[in-house]
Amino acid sequence: MAIAPTVRVQQQDFDLAAEVAALTSGRTDVGAVVTFSGLCRDEGGALAALELEHYPGMAEAEIKRIVSEAITRWPVTGLTIIHRYGQIHPGENIVLVVAASPHRQAAFEAASFLMDYLKSRAPFWKKEHHVDGSAGGWVEAKEADATALKRWDEKGQR
Amino acid sequence: MTKLLYFAWVRERIGKREEEIDLPAEVVTVSDLLEWLRDKGDGYAEALQQPQVIRVAINEEHVDHREAIAGAREIALFPPMTGG
Fold first, then answer.
1. What is the ipTM metric for this complex?
2. H helices present in chain B, as ranges
3. How high is the pLDDT of residue A127?
C-alpha cells in the first residue's frame, strides 16, 4: 500500500495530538502509533537557547530519502516528520516523529530508525547560547549517534 | 561557475554563506576541492584545517571525498550534523 508521508521543516511549533489525529482519523486499519518528540533541555540551567541552522532544500530532500527507506523496511500506514529550525528555548519542541502501523513492532522500529538517521544524516546543526550571554559554540556530533546508525545497517544485511 | 554553500562553523570561519566560484580543471574530486579551498585565505584554512571531518553534499545529496565534482551545480560544505 502506498502511503503519503508528511515531511515538514519549519520555524513554528507543532501540535503532537493534531499530527497523530492526521494519521488515524477516519481509518480503522491502524493498530499502533508511536510518537517521538525531541525537546530542548536547559543543560542544568546553563542553556538559554539553541540556534538550529539547516540547509534549506537538502533538509527536506534528505528527510524524504530517509522516510522512503523506512517505508520499504516496515509495513507502516503513515509517517510524519517535523523538524524545527531557528531559535528554540528550553522546554520547547525541536523534532517530531510519528509512525503508524497495524502492529506495534513496525511503528516502534520505524520511529527509532527515523530518529537515528535524522541525527546523523539530516543537515541540521545546533549552536548553544548560554544564560550568561556567552555563545556556547556548536554542538559536536556524538560517536554514539554514529554507532546507533550501524545497527540498522547490520539488520539490512541479514 | 559552481555554487558553494557553507554551514555552521564552516560558514562562520570562512565568513560567508555562499559564493560562486570558477573551479580550475585540476580540481576533480571533493578531496581536491577541499585542498584547493584551503589556500584561498586564512578563514578557509581555519575552516578546512582538518578536511577529513568536513561533510560534503553535491546537489543536495551526501557524497564522500572521492566523489567527482564534474557537473555539480551546488556543493555544500559543513560539519557533522547535529539535528534531531
1. 0.96
2. 8-14, 30-38, 42-47
3. 96
Give residue-wise pLDDT tens across range B32-49: 999 999 999 999 999 999
Evaluate whether A101 touches A31 at the Cβ level (below 8 Å): yes
Q: Is the pLDDT of residue A143 over 90?
A: no
- The answer as to whether B41 is a domain residue is yes
CA quadruple B59, A55, B4, B76: dihedral sign: negative
Q: Global pTM? A: 0.94
Tell me the nearest-neighbour CA distance from A96 into chain B, angstroms: 9
Cβ distance of A141 and B61 shorter than 8 Å: no
**Domains of chain B: total:** 1
Q: Say how many residues make up chain A.
A: 158
Task: Quote the CA–CA distance of A49 and A28 in Å, as a whole number.
Answer: 41
pLDDT digits (tens, 9 = 90+) for A90-126: 999 999 999 999 999 999 999 999 999 999 999 999 9
Q: Which residue of B has its CA nearest to A124?
A: B83
B50 touches chain A (CB under 8 A): no
C-alpha grid cell, residue A104 = 506495534
Question: Span A6-157: which CATH code?
Answer: 3.90.1170.40
Tell me what the pLDDT averaged over chain B comes to. Answer: 97
- Pairwise CB contact (< 8 Å): B83 & A83: yes
Is B63 within the bounds of a domain? yes
Q: Between B7, B9, B80, which is nearest A55 by CB?
A: B7
In a domain, B84, yes or no: no
CATH of the domain at B17: 3.10.20.30
Q: For chain A, give every domain's residue range.
A: 6-157
- Residue A81 near chain B (CB below 8 Å): no
